[in-house]
Design brief:
Layout: E1 2-13, E2 20-28, E3 31-35, E4 38-40, H1 47-59, E5 61-76, E6 89-103, E7 113-120, H2 131-141
Parallel strand pairs: 1-6
Antiparallel strand pairs: 1-2, 1-4, 2-3, 2-7, 5-6
Cofactor: Mg(2+)
GO molecular function: hydrolase activity
Protein name: 8-oxo-dGTP diphosphatase
């Protein structure tokens, strides 16, 4: 079984009905969905540094971590892997809360994401998204989607 460690950020702005969540759009061939900005931890890299680096790479924003929300563990069976790697993948996902400290929204070039943007929390259940979004929002405040 392969293990992949990654770090992600939950970044929001606004409040109440106008609260928005920063998401990155992941694409790998025909599979795609909105996800949290974040990604793989490089060998020897601290998860905090990886989270901040990945936010910048995928969105153009500089971020400051404000807390650790939790760690999620997911196992993807070999038959569900994107490239048929022939072995299951155990993903360990470290999720932080963060705030924007600078920069401007910029779409990653030549990476695993092809879009980024702010989405009203009320609209998130209608987005095509990866499960990590729901998991992380649940870590944050017990939020649960109204649709799957």
């Amino acid at each position: 079984m392969r293990i992949r460690a990654a770090a992600y950020c939950v970044i929001t702005r606004g409040a109440g009905a106008d609260e928005e969540l920063l998401l990155s759009h992941w694409r790998d061939g025909s599979r795609h969905g909105w996800t949290l900005p974040g990604g793989g931890i490089d060998p020897g890299e601290h998860p905090e540094h990886a989270a901040v680096r990945e936010v910048f790479e995928e969105t153009g924003y500089h971020a400051r971590l404000t807390g650790l929300l939790g760690v999620d563990s997911i196992v993807i069976p070999a038959k569900e892997r994107l490239r048929g790697e022939g072995e299951p993948l155990h993903g360990l996902r470290v999720v932080y809360s963060a705030e924007i400290t600078g920069g401007e929204l910029t779409i990653e070039v030549d990476g695993s994401s092809d879009d980024a943007g702010w989405h009203r929390l009320a609209d998130v259940p209608d987005l095509r998204r990866v499960s990590l979004v729901d998991v992380a929002l649940g870590m944050r405040d017990g939020w649960a989607p109204t649709t799957a």
